[in-house]
Each structure stands twice: as C-alpha cells, then as structure tokens.
Amino acid sequence: MLNIAVLVSGGGTNLQALIDAQNRGEIKNGRITCVVSSKANAYALERAEKNGISTRVIARNEYGDIHSYTAAVTNALLEEKADLIVYAGFMTILDKQIVDAFRGKMMNVHPALIPSFCGKGFYGLHVHEAVLASGVKLTGATVHFVTEDCDAGPIIMQKAIDINNDDTPETLQKRVMEQCEWKILPKAVSLFCEGRIKIVGNKTVVS
To answer: Strand 155-162 to strand 54-57: parallel, antiparallel, or no bridges (unpaired)?
Structure first.
C-alpha cells in the first residue's frame, strides 16, 4: 500500500475528488496519508481533517526564498515516507530539490490540454480566459509527471470537452473540473499505485 501525499493551497476540490474516489475503493494499492498546505487558512485542510487524514502547514510566506521553502516541503514529504506526491491546486512552483528527491513520483493536474495553455502564469481562471480568447473548440485537463520545467513532464492522462458558444471563464473552469480533472486525477493516481505507468523518455506507457 503506497503512501500518497497531496499538496494544496486553496479550496481543495481536487483533493475532495481524490478522497471521494478513495472512499469508493477506486484507488488501488494506495491511500492518502498526508495533506500539505502552503496556506494555513486553506479549506482543503478541513476536507482532510473531516476524513481523518493528517495535515501539515508549510506556509510559503514564512520562507524568504523558493530554495529554503522547497527544502522544507521536501524534508516534510521524506518524513511522511511519501511514495507519490500529487499537486492538487498547489500554487507554488518548487525548485529542482524536490524533483531530485522524488523523480517520477510526483504528478500534477493542469486545467488544459498540454502542451497548449500551460507553463508559468497559466493557472486558475487565467487558463480558461486564454482558452476562450484563442477560439479553440476543445479544452480539457491533463495529468502529468512533475519535472524541473513547469507543466512539461511526461503526460499520463488527458480528457477533452467541447467549448460552448456561451462559455465564460467561470463556466468553463467548472466544467473542466467536474468533467475532466475530477475524473482523470483519481484514475492516474490509481494507475501509479498499481505500478501500471512506465516513463519512457518524455512519454508514458500505461498498461
């Protein structure tokens, strides 16, 4: 049984999707053992506590630079004996230290179809605003491994939806979460815990 640690910064909707999937028995050979938040007031912490999951707050604003902050997060995850780390709305880009410590063991969910609309600055509503401004007809979500380069790691799963003529950034964000992110993130986590994902170069082979 693998130990899953989830990194959060806000409301924790993707964390809730993982908890719900776990409670339904959909995450095989893994369990969420710790939730780490970059903010002390993140509602995600309440979600974890309501489900008996231990929490840690490592506040970004208490560290002078990203190097010292990354070191603190990395050390905490090593103490927790994390086998898989899931970025679920974690709003800080950590440096290479954590990648070196957990290479091939960290995944992130991004609210667009990578390699489009991703990288630094593409988060939250900014992603959906850019999607609508571009005129594309499809969008969706991507689960990928975390590497040194933002949103550039090997892709594990993607799911697409149509864009409606009357979509706003807010309605699109809601549909991408409900129809894409909350579906593929628990599936990707289970595949990892079952040992069914192999990284080959910058691609994955899922068995």
So the answer is: unpaired
